[in-house]
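Contributing new records

If you add data, match the layout below exactly. Sequence lines come first and carry their own label; structure lines follow with theirs. Keep one chain per record. Anything else will be rejected by the validation script.
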Amino acid sequence: MKDFRPLRFLRGGHLQTLLGYWSRRKLRWTLDTEDIVVDHADGVRLLLRASWQADREARPTLVLVHGLGGDDRSTYSIATGSLAWRRGWNVVRMNMRGAGESEALCPRLYHAGVDTDLLAALEAVAARTPRLAPLGFSLGANLVLLTLGRQADRVPGGVFAAAAVSPPLDLAACADALGRAGGRVYERHYVRDLQSAYRRRQALLPHLYAAHRERGLRSIREYDEAITAHYGGFRDAADYYERSSAGPQLVRIDRPTLILSAADDPMIPGESVARWPLPPSGVVRREILPTGGHVGFVAATSAPGRFWAAERVMEFLEGFRPAETRERTR
């Protein structure tokens, strides 16, 4: 495939980030879908949306994990899933607990460290198809890497490779970046969405979530201090960031994994991605491109919505695709 080379006037972190949204805003999932409900511990129920090839057990499965404020309808997931489907893969789009339409099943709060949720989802998919690869975006990218590292001995054996696009490997550094001038426009958007989500969950589970706790919060760090840490079992926001950041866990990953990021990501400082040691085996590949923004990577590509990262990720995963799944690809 071609290197990522956006037109000269389409470079820059903010521009690429906004173009990513604009280029994919009309994408919708149109393939037949089976809803899979995974009953997890402590009453948590996860909603997975699976689109199977006719001979699903003979095909690899891509498990897509959305970012903060997203769900199975997130357009970066749809762009990547559509490309994977054309290449003969099954596609499963995971909703984190309470995200999207899974709110009706389990109106609970998710966060960057719920690795046992992803583990439960992978186990459910592995029971239906033997070869699979998780791919996360933004917060979901951190979750994929955290799970592969922290839960390395529990990840299903059928997981043959993985990928992460724009992962916030140091959550504290990313919260600081959002609080600076260049990130505040994104922070305000996220905080408003998080406050709205909290109010919906509080109305559904008033015995669990206190009323008005979201009021007056102006930053991601304030939200994580008052709500994420409080209800997630962490001492405070700093404890949540330290225990839920995937960076320190990268060295424990034991299967082929691609980390794709951009140096001009306005939400994730490049140094916070680059500084973590990787396994000496070379099983983890880290690619930090000069431009691309946050889950932007807008350029000419075979993927819908001009999402170059989707093609790069699929090229990587195809390189480790088990031989028994390579027949009759499209």
